[in-house]
Write a structure and sequence with these properties.
Layout: E1 10-15, E2 18-23, E3 39-41, H1 50-66, E4 69-73, H2 79-93, H3 97-101, E5 113-115, E6 132-137, H4 169-194, E7 209-218, E8 229-232, E9 238-243, E10 251-254, E11 260-262, E12 269-274, H5 276-281, E13 291-293, E14 301-311, E15 315-316, E16 332-333, H6 334-350
Helix pairs in contact: 1-4, 2-4
Bound molecules: 2-oxoglutaric acid and fe (ii) ion (FE2).
Family: Belongs to the iron/ascorbate-dependent oxidoreductase family.
Organism: Dothidotthia symphoricarpi CBS 119687
Pfam families: 2OG-FeII_Oxy, DIOX_N
Amino acid sequence: MSATETENEWVHYHDGGIPGRRRVLKGKEANPAFMEVPKIDFRRIYSDKLSDREELASEVGAACRDVGFFYAVNHGVDEKMLEDTLDALKKYFALPTEVKMETHNQKTEKFRGYEAFLEGKLDQSTRGDLKEGFLMGEDAHDPEQNLPLPLPSTSPRNQWPTHPSALFFRPAIYRYHTAMSTFSRLLLHIFALALSLPETAFDSITTHPMTNVRAVHYPPQNSDADVGIGAHTDFCWFTLVCQSATTLPALEVLNGNGMWVPVPCVPNSFVVNIADFLKVVTGGSWMSTVHRVRNRSGEERYSMPFFFSPNEDARVSVVEHLRKEGEVYDEFVVGEYFQKRLEVDRRTHLDPDEGGKGTGL
Ligand SMILES: O=C(O)CCC(=O)C(=O)O
Ligand SMILES: [Fe+2]
């Protein structure tokens, strides 16, 4: 058995930006629930044969319905580039605090830039998330993204370090961002097939998607009272996580019985998870699963989640054939949904009694 049972009767988390809880079910009370995250061979994503891609999609669809998480093994993204990016994270987070604080995320509307230790706090029972991070995202002002500037031009969203010792970081993050954006578009074709839609169903709403890379450093935690990132669901469409290897798994996902299932680093793989927005668009048939990070390995851990959502101005609703008869479904604008979620986070940031602070993207 690969899962560890929680000691408490209730597990607390953030779902949809709102505090939620789940009772731990044991023995006869327990329901059938996943005990590990499935590994799916992604070589078929590059196949010319539609039947190969459909076969992959049917495995992906099952994982999205039953677990909300899966490993994309043999993803085909340049391994050396991924290693180099993780090395760039190590080098960046080892810089003096003053250099990192130049881009403190509190200086921007969208929390882009550096997040210091304990500033995020998704779990109120802790002293804060034992992590530091750096967030960047879609921004037409960064020439690397090759996007037309919005008219009238809004101000830049990203902040990048300007100290000479930190200049290596921006190109390293952009190499990763570009590769992950390309992979995500292919993955969207598989998701479309998995939802019995034409492969290109989401292409027109993802011409200039909302994307974020969060580079994160989790130091080893000495106390079980600490958490690297408190239990939460993500609020984009889906997330890809590339993580450094540690002797003890640090990422954990919550199954239906309130048990934490470990998600160790598997070579040549990304961890993929469905987030709140795709759960909404699939009428709840795909799961946005609660997860957290605890780094009890005694080693430094680095990860770089890549968050993907459609175009900010796209209008979306629940996929037609997944609608229930008699229900009314609103169409909503992607950027507005995102902003609403950010506002929930901003409110909780200002009022810790509401359950947390920081962005659980
Ligand atoms: O570091 C990880 O493995 C996951 C981080 C995470 O869940 C997040 O940033 O939303
Ligand atoms: Fe997450």
